[in-house]
Amino acid sequence: MPVRLGAMHGVTASGPGDLWVSGIDPDHAGRALFLRFDGAEWSREYGPPFRVHEDDFVLRH
């Protein structure tokens, strides 16, 4: 596995040699982690940084 520590949140397999795992890598906090196994080796990609919307901080009554 190309990540030493993390948490898995989802697994998708669309056929032999095509396995995807989504999760979090604490070394890249704030970005989604995507691991892919192509049947021979693992690779990793990171999604764009998570965004916080200003509305998330507005108190609603």
Number of strands: 4
Strand order of the largest sheet: 1-2-3-4
The fraction of residues assigned to DSSP E strands is: over 45%
Helix count?
0
Structural classification: mainly beta
For the biggest sheet, the summary is: 4 strands, antiparallel
SSE order, one letter for each helix or strand: EEEE
Helix content: under 10%
Low-confidence stretches: none
Question: What is the chains' assembly state?
Answer: single chain
User: Could you report the average pLDDT, rounded to the nearest whole number?
Assistant: 84
Radius of gyration: 15 Å
> What is the distance, rounded to the nearest whole angstrom, between the alpha carbons of the first and last residues?
47 Å
Could you write a compact summary of the structure shown?
The chain is mostly beta strands. Helix content is 0%, strand content 51%. A hairpin with a 6-residue loop joins strand 2 (18-24) and strand 3.
